[in-house]
# Entry
Amino acid sequence: MSLGQANVNPLEVSSGDDCISIVSGSENVRATGITCGPGHGISIGSLGANNSEAYVSNVVVNKATLIGTTNGVRIKTWQGGHGVAKNIIFQDIIMKNVTNPIIINQDYCDRVESCPQQKSAVQVSNVLYKNIQGTSSRPVAVKFECSKSIPCQGISMQNVKLVDQTQQDVVSTASCSNVKLDTKGHVGNAVTDDYHDYIGTFEYWWNHGLISDSTYHQLKTACYSVSSQHPSLQCMEALRSAELEQGNIDPYSIFTKPCNNTVQLKSFLKGRYPWMSRAYDPCTERYSNVYFNRVEVQKALHVNVTRLSYPWKSCSDIVGNYWTDSPVSMLPIYRELITAGLKIWVFSGDTDAVVPITATRYSIDALKLATITNWYPWYDHGKVGGWSQVYKGLTLVTVTGAGHEVPLHRPRQAFIIFRSFLENKPMPMS
# Structure
């Protein structure tokens, strides 16, 4: 069955070909309640045969069931074609033993031998797969085979769960070629460059009274010329001195109480600081360790299927001790991404002593970016929420009173940052 412009109501289709084929010229098509099988599934296309132009837009396939079909929901376009297939939604779909449940084939070829690669193709863009569940007869359930010259873009998947028909506790995998992601760039508390991070971190410790003058001098002398992954013995000694001088603080949020889960401390805090029982909880990392080691949580996340003999930890000493390929600097990557036009925001809490704002500012300054908007306070309901500066290719935002995990310490201000970023607006100036 081929569709042009139509609404298709509940229908059962068995076929030796596509159960439904949405062809060129189709616009504002809504297919609801289709049951397909056997057959080749529900297809958009094939489009662009014999180097022709093809256009399909505003298609919704909703509440379909596919049983034993070769394909599930498919977009297929011929090599050498022109035009566009856009604004397509596949949602609320059940797959039962489908060979290729989700597939985009942008270089469609119906010959046994491969078709020659051509530079033109029908553009596939803005496709949403939502609430799709069921079983696949093959381990790879999702295939995006897009054109190298005209890659797919704007592909989004939400709540897609497809498992292997023969091993239904095993989640199927995906294969992806030449898909252009709608990349966003939001970097929080970024370790950026060893040299500048050292300068800014040690300066922050000293300026906030966390270390002595002598240790500050020792850190500057011993550490500036070494990598954070391979510090010298002299640098390690200076860092140990700094740790001892800082004492029992939470370095991720220097003005909050450290986690000490004793009954005496709980009683003390509730007695002298009653607001602490409903404010920031410094023991969140402990809760994370407990939560993510629960069997039902790991099963829901499809992790630790081999049942490792050791527990999950939020920060692994094993990884930290043996991870040796950390780059000395990410500044070349920033320059590459900025040149490519990626939108980048870097945000930092100003009470974080682990990746402090001073370190981030030194690293950004090393990029030598032109300033678009000078340093200014941004506001939340008339109160200063932090400060911001807009550079050519990068925006820096600070959050006053926030530690390393900005959304944990200042959730409202974090929301304002993310909202401004997504709306492509600067931080509010009033």
